[in-house]
Design a protein that fits this description.
The chain is mainly β and 326 residues long. The chain has two helices and 21 strands. β1 and β2 form a beta hairpin. The longest helix has 12 residues.
């Protein structure tokens, strides 16, 4: 006699590194990521996806040895999520929705195992680096038996379900023929706790991706423009995401930049355009030095007036630039 309390499901998880590769040859050009993906394993793959820290793209199913051309738009800055993890969750809800039971195991593997692509970390300081790249993770699924089954009391189970996650990493080139392109999301701003006002200590640890501002809180973000010393910059923009891409109601969050000439923060000036509606700061490359301090830091101060009755969430600013390597 069995009842529901005497029945139990078993689950195991393991990694294997000798199953082949998911090869990719990808390049960013003119707002699109183009190239090809090849399944260089002996197994058919389902729901193959390209994931970067600025977006994702569903390739589809690939038979063993199959190659497919891909072309898709790079994500726009206004759709960038605050949390890096939220890209994974957006992907899960979009491609592997909850309403299909078959996606449960896939969602769990994506959530528990799939890493996030790395953001660029001072890559431009290395003058030996010949190309700036955007890391991508390519993954797909398979439900075939690859290894031995689990034995229970020395015998395999009557019924076994398998979900195999195949994963590989690659670099998406963003620079060709000496031209350098830094996409939004590749380099994020840092917080200067000494200049910021009324922030909590934990908010200055460097692992946050958004800041809540209320009352008289002010946060000073900065980019180290020395990272771009090997580039002749043709265009430079900074993207600031607030309240899911829109500033709350009619309230405008004050944004100002450090001006070396007056050693103060300004809300406008020569060669500077701050669009509060879109959250985009456009700086004329000829005036970059004007808006950087003696250490080469470009500061952005964001804060609310003391009498504000509303708080607002501000994502870390992201910089984009185009130019040519010197």
């Amino acid at each position: 006699n069995l009842d529901m309390w005497t029945m139990e499901a078993f689950s195991t998880r393991y990694s294997q590194a000798d199953l082949g590769n998911i090869d990719a040859d990808l390049l960013y050009k003119d707002g699109k990521i183009i190239g090809d993906i090849k399944n260089s394993t002996d197994y058919p793959l389902e729901d193959v996806v390209v994931l970067t820290n600025v977006g994702y793209y569903k390739v589809g199913n690939l038979a063993a040895g199959a190659k497919r051309d891909v072309e898709f738009d790079a994500v726009t800055p206004t759709t960038m999520p605050h949390y890096p993890d939220s890209i994974k969750y957006s992907l899960m809800d979009d491609i592997f929705p909850y309403d299909e039971d078959i996606n449960y195991a896939k969602r769990r593997l994506i959530d528990d195992i799939l890493p996030l692509p790395e953001r660029m970390a001072n890559v431009l300081k290395d003058v030996s680096t010949s190309e700036v790249g955007l890391e991508a993770i390519i993954f797909g699924f398979n439900d075939q038996r690859i290894d031995d089954d689990i034995n229970i009391d020395g015998k395999p189970a009557n019924k076994t379900y398998r979900t195999n996650l195949f994963m590989d990493r690659t670099q998406i080139g963003t620079s060709t023929d000496g031209k350098v392109v830094i996409l939004p999301g590749m380099i994020m701003a840092k917080i200067d706790p000494e200049i910021s006002e009324n922030l909590e200590q934990y908010e200055m640890m460097g692992d946050m991706n958004e800041i809540y501002l209320y009352n008289s809180r002010k946060v000073a973000f900065y980019f180290d423009m020395e990272d771009f010393s090997q580039i002749d910059i043709d265009s430079l923009k900074i993207y600031i995401d607030a309240s899911d891409g829109k500033f709350a109601g009619d309230m405008k969050v004050p944004i100002s930049l450090y001006n070396r000439d007056g050693d103060s923060f300004v809300e406008g000036g020569e060669g500077l355009d701050i669009d509060l509606d879109s959250g985009i700061i456009d700086i004329d490359p000829a005036y970059i030095e004007k808006y950087t301090d003696h250490r080469g830091r470009l500061y952005i101060m964001i804060g609310l007036d003391e009498d504000s009755q509303q708080d607002v969430m501000v994502g870390f600013p992201s910089i984009s630039a185009e130019g040519r390597r010197r």
